[in-house]
Amino acid sequence: MRVANYYRVSTKLQEKKFSLAAQKEELNKYLSQQGWKLIGEFKDVESGGKLKKDGLNALLDIVEEGGVDVVLVIDQDRLSRLDTVAWEYLKSTLRDNNVKIAEPGTIIDLANEDDEFISDIKNLIARREKKAVVRRMMRGKRQRLREGKGWGIPPFEYKYNKQTSKYEAKEDWKWVIPFIDDLYLQKQLGMKSISDKLNEISKTPTGKQWNEHLIHTRLTSKAFHGIQEKEFTDGEQIKAYVYEPLRTEETYNKIQEEKEKRSGQFSVSGRKNSDNIHMLKRTHITCGHCERTISISQHGTKERPNYYAKHGRKKSIKSQCDLSINTVRFDNNIIKALKDVLTSEELAKKYIRIEYDKNEVNILKSEIKQQEKTITDLKASLDRLLDIYLSGDLKKDKYLEKEKVFHSKIEVQEETLIKLKRKLTAIDSSSFTYESLYQYMAIAKNIESELTGLERAQLVGTLFPRGIVYDNKIILITEVFNGIPIEVAIPIDGDPYTWHHTKKNTHVFL
């Protein structure tokens, strides 16, 4: 009998404790007793639940070449803890090549229905055992995290301290995260530019080149301000402070805000010339007609850029809106509006509602009541959802998914309610006056001074984090006045490039 020995352990730890060498010694002893001929030895240090393993693949190659009669294993679960599809594939490969599975004292011929049935039972038991092992392991990991002890492979800037069960930053690499944060937040570099800067200084601790993925990971991981956070299959979330902080949580939040501003319509990734940034690049703009996101897109050359407020590339199936406006139609109007607001109350009234009559106050109160009713209805729906789950008509994962959606909606509605109440309070107390408005808008005094494009975008983005654009006007929304949303309505001029309309049915940027 031509025999191929197959040895497997799941982890490096098992390789030391339950040694591949021990399996090899026992199988070779049995093989010798049977008088069989050893053709080859194959091994893996991987999960039995995976079909694609180097050792197993090499073994199947020799099987398909007809070079073996028996695959000898210490126990069938060394060969397989596979799911049904993968197990059927493995069995058919062995059966089609007349190869048997052998354990010390047992030979299984897969061409025999009874033997195959026994083999299937063994695989099923092995799979159940594997799941039980995983469950026990995950329970242990959960408990470790609850106790504030870390587990898993850390970022390469850290090393594990067995005494404290915490991750300590490597002294030689503590500089990396503050360096990345400074380039991203202060220097306003993109991820590609940051990786280039790092590669000029040093490779990674593993000797590889820095790249955008590594920078992105370091900007978004909570590990660098100390947190290990895990969400388990039942929806439970556990977090613990197990890493030595290399940045503050405040800095992490600033990075996420900055990242959100740069994503898609806000991207300034890698741009070295900060003058080529439109003043609304840091403002989240939506379409007043279809509510889709509007981006500020750059066209032309770097030296002479043209900007358009338009929808992104992804077109909505539900909406045929294709708003696209050349920003020259409102750029100067934005500057003029800011100057006028800071000049006098009369000029400010052209853009901002400063005075409210009794009827408008009543409308605001009505909006508050409606908002409160919406929140009450959402909370009632959440209670009904819990009743459905407790009655057994809804699976836990679906319940947790829907519960998360409801909480998110309630949070948004409650935030809106808070702002409406603040506005009503300000109006009732007569604190919403031109003088107070001037005080909060004063940061835009230097909008026409020698600012770079980036500095102007940062200023406008801080003053107006949100905006809505229509065919004939753009509304910029500020909340600098005690968190009260104040709308500044700015007109959009007519199309100065009507001569572009030369071909019928040809899309033209307005």
From TrEMBL:
The Recombinase domain, residue ranges: 155-266
Source species, domain of life: Bacteria
InterPro entries: DNA_bind_recomb_sf (IPR038109), DNA_bind_recombinase_dom (IPR011109), Resolv_N (IPR006119), Resolvase-like_N_sf (IPR036162), SSR_resolvase (IPR050639)
Keywords, alphabetical: Coiled coil
Domain Resolvase/invertase-type recombinase catalytic: 2-148
Organism: Ornithinibacillus salinisoli
Name of the featured protein: Recombinase family protein
Residue runs in coiled coils: 354-388
